Amino acid sequence: MSDIDKYYDVIIVGAGPAGIGVSILLQKLDINHIILEKTSIGDSFRKWPKETRFISPSFTGNFFKMPDLNAITPATSPAFTLLTEHPTGEDYVEYLENLAKYYDLPIKTEVYVDAIRKKADSFVLNTTNGAYKSTYAIWAAGEYQYPNKRAFEGAHLCTHYSEIDSFSDLDGDEHIVIGAYESGFDAMVNLIRARKIVTLLDDSDYLNLVKSDSSYSLAPFTRDRIEYVADLFDYYTETKVSSVAFVNATYIVKTANGHTFTSPQKPINCTGFASSLTLVKEAFEFKNNYPLLNDFDESTKTKNLFLVGPQVKHRNALFCFIYKYRQRFAIVAEKIAKEIKVPHKTIEKALQEYKNNNFYLDNLSCCDDECVC
Q1: Number of helices and strands (H, E) in the chain?
Q2: Up-side HSE of residue 373: CA atoms within 13 Å toward CB?
Q3: Is-contact 202 239, C-beta < 8 A?
């Protein structure tokens, strides 16, 4: 019998940290499942520019119930495995591959899911490898491979951040960077390190915006790097780009506040990502561009379809970093385990480690607090 002829309890779409993280817990619960990955394990991280590093630091504190911020299981640490504090994308792929091998995860690579259909009480996933069927589906496809190329008129004329292999390989000495959140400042810093001249266009004022939630404010790692190049780039705040045109071998960038910038090189688009949810948008309800989920991260529109990863949001709590969304793996896994009648003792044994190590967040009211200082 081939794998596409089998009926699974759960199908997970995506073999990045979210998909692998929740799969490990399903494996501990002895739940019949499979991960479908369109390319290879952690492929989004493999596509990062070679200079890009994790902004969240890795540090081994497991003995003290303080797991590595970039770990996706309580008992592992990228810092211990990779011996670095801020891993590269390639580094992190190594960590994910090690986990997949150690836990013997059921991953099927090079299987592209192009549609999810709900038929009665089952899901049918149409793929390049045929149809897969399950009772539950978990969407864990991530964001990086789905860049936002519609943020302004003429965005297609730019080089999106996700299309850069290395900043040192970019032609020309002068570059305009559009968008100034994490990817924009990362591009700026790495371009300057490659001895380029940079103009950074910020539609807000992120350099001076400080909040206690790192989902809405620049990371300290980013600010430290900016400090070293503070006098080496032109920075325009409240400068929202309205259009980019290519005229007479020159890129012309116009802004909503009347500025015009020109460059012989393609501007670099750092306005973010559209997310993989564009592929399954009919299965979710949305509010302010985020999917509506119940308390178990299940779609409010499609029963038994769950979301894990950086698109998860509850009220003001945005779970866009690994150390945040890993706290919801156990919530999803527990919900499914109870519904398919996994023995209570098995559930408690699997979840206790997660509860003891801050990998189990079921009270979302705690996410509204601000730091005192």
Answers
A1: 9, 19
A2: 0
A3: yes
The values of phi and psi at residue 167, to 5°, are: -70, -25
Instruction: Note whether 155 and 30 are within 8 A (CB).
Output: no
Nearest residue to 113 (alpha-carbon basis) of 279, 354, 256: 279
Chain centre to alpha carbon of residue 287: 19
SS3 201: strand
- Residue 126 near residue 36, CB atoms below 8 Å: no
Q: Kindly indicate the confidence band of residue 327, based on its pLDDT and cuts at 50, 70 and 90.
A: very high
3-state secondary structure of 352: helix
Structure tokens at 149: 């190329």
Contact 341, 351 (CB under 8 A): no
| pLDDT per residue as tens digits for the range 102-134 | 999 999 999 999 889 998 889 999 999 999 999
Amino acid identity, position 272: G
| 71, 21 contact by CB (below 8 A) | no
Length of the chain, in residues: 373
3-state helix, strand, coil in the chain (%, to 5): 30, 25, 45
